[in-house]
Amino acid sequence: MILTHALVIGALFSAGTYLVLQRTLTRVVIGIAVLGHGANLLLLLAGGAPGNPPLIDVAPRSLPLNDATAATAQVSDPLPQALALTAIVITFGVTAFLLALSRRSWLLTHDDLVRDDLEDQRIAREGGDEEVA
Fold it and tell me: Quick count: other Cβ atoms within 10 Å of Cβ 17?
């Protein structure tokens, strides 16, 4: 089961990385969303097996130390869940920002293809000339 999850997470990260490296803004937005889903699955898998809710006191003070330690060992770790929630919020914000950029690009150029910046090309040519000289 863990191997299946690892393969799914690897496939999501691979597909997301491939899409983010494209020159079309629509594919970049989809790639960011796929990477976010891969990160969420990775965080949930890192949390381990499900356990008791961490907010309920499952280890009363009246239990002996060994019983209390065993009871708290069955409590799930809340950190991966908190990190997954944070990753969801960050992915939502980045996706909304990229959608706004895509819409602006569509309004200005009627295309979602990212073109090369002419100033970057000029700087690259001048930098290439200085290295040769």
Answer: 13
Chain position carrying tokens 């209390």? 68
Which residue stretches of 47-77 are H helix?
65-73
DSSP class of residue 55 equals T
CA distances from 116 to 11, 16, 21 (A): 29, 22, 14
CB atoms within 10 A of CB 123: 11
Q: What is the dihedral of CA 80, 81, 83, 87, to 10 degrees?
A: 130
Q: What is the signed CA dihedral for 44, 48, 51, 55, rounded to 10 degrees?
A: -60
- The pLDDT profile of the chain, 133 residues, written as one tens digit per residue, is 788 999 999 999 999 999 999 999 999 999 999 999 999 999 888 887 777 777 656 555 565 666 656 666 677 788 888 899 999 999 999 999 999 989 998 999 888 888 888 888 888 888 866 655 4
